# Entry
Amino acid sequence: MAEGQASSHRKRRVRTAWLFLAPMLVGLTVVAIWPLARTVFYAFTDASLSAPGDYAFLGFENFAVAEDGYWYGLITDPLWWNAVWNTLVFAAGSVAIEVVLGVILALVMNAEFPGRALFRAAVLIPWAIPTVVSAKMWAWMLHDQFGVVNHTLMTLGLISTPIAWLADPDLTMLSVILVDAWKTTPFVALLVLAALQMLPKDCYEAARVDGVHPIKVFFGITLPLIRPALTVAVIFRLLDALRVFDVVYIMTGNAESTMTMSVYARQQLVDFQDVGYGSAASTLLFMVIAFMTALYLTAMRADVMKEGR
Amino acid sequence: MAARHTSPAAKIGFWLLVAVLLVILLFPFYYAVITSFKSGSAIFEVDYLPAALSAGNYTSIFAEQPFGRNILNSLVVSVAVVGISLFLGLTAALALGRFRFKGRRMMLLAVLSVSMFPQVAVLSGMFELIRVLGLFNNPGGLILSYLIFTLPFTVWVLTSFIRDLPAEVEEAAIMDGAKPWTLLTRIFLPMMWPAMVTTGLLAFIVAWNEFLFALTFTLSNDQRTVPVAIALITGGSEFEVPWGRIMAASVIVTVPLIALVLIFQRRIVSGLTAGAVKG
# Structure
């Protein structure tokens, strides 16, 4: 083939590629990039939900402003920092529980026993249930007067008076974390199981022949080998947990004791109609998540480079 | 592993663990089902076994509110989201998986990073967009906004699938003078069904379950999707929450989903882990 012909062929291929890429790129720009850009823009205005076109620029006033010697704005709002703290507690608590239970679930799913297929199917069920439904189901089970959880605990003699799982401010966060863990542990378990199935069989054989205790085998062989998969699972779940909304809002509404950053931002935006202030909160949340994603992507790229691909 | 260690104590311990896990996994939904069949004050008695079989809750959610309409809305939205996502995902996957050009890797990373966007971060921008387009309180607004969740993983999974197909198929077709569009529809499409079933199902589940956008972008009862309808079922007062009806509605929207997930178990598991492992 002549040189010029080859290069014009290559040019045509590149043009075709962009043509096929275009519809998706337009879609993603319209539903993701543009709305995000507008949110960041609104964060610097006093727009309201009832008349979003009618706004004035405030600069950084939604974030922080000094007036008559007092500071106002998002970063001076104790309720915002309460939401930040709640989000961190929720993320740390739910992800920790999910990882421990997820590994246990995955080990059981990976074991050979009669009925394993049924067990694997059962693990998928909490994942398949919509968050709204699981939140409502658990709200009913945790009902202080008529709930089956209190009933069972009292029948077993573990508690003497009913516990207000969703009303006592000291307990609501724990309840919400447990419900989230119930629904998302299967996802972690599936990721861990995929890693377990790729483990070399021979070191287990060797360990068995040498009579090494199974718990030692787990911490000595299994855990180090599945660590990359666990890291991925933890990062995925952390990024999800930091923006949690559904389960918290459905179980406890806008209650202060569980309010996360997403719940706070939505309340400002929709309930208080304050698009400017709510957008400022959303923008801060986005920056936290973007920072963590960037860290993760950099780490991943470094990994890929090391593998020499 | 555990079952292979033959000491009886270990065996009993293992089966005990399996039993406890099964109860934790399955009891909540089982309890929702038996609650949904109770009527009147029977609902306030705690029963571990089915105690009643009254369909009253099921008939009343359809009679007292537009729940049938809500289901239809959810179906329309989910099916449309699946269709649009697959079309945009397939065309993009052909470009990203089968063509070499500058910026291809960056493009994939950019698409992936959209899946990390917090929903509230696009809420005000999306609200404005939907109002400008006249899609407020309309399933069209939900179809549009849900693409932000489905496009990233659809593009990602379909791209890695199409990339792994052998090169010969394509070369033979190009020799015969096939245009890219023909290549996609005649050559690749028939081979991509497994990946399309996986991504389609995941997109369907995401759209079927979505709550925050549906709550914010719809206003009237008959435009709502099922998750919002369930969340907003209320009684005469704060103290008369109709738990029976809530559970009945929950069972109705969950049973088809569980059926889908169990039937396509392998596809879904491979899609979930592929998306995560490669992401």
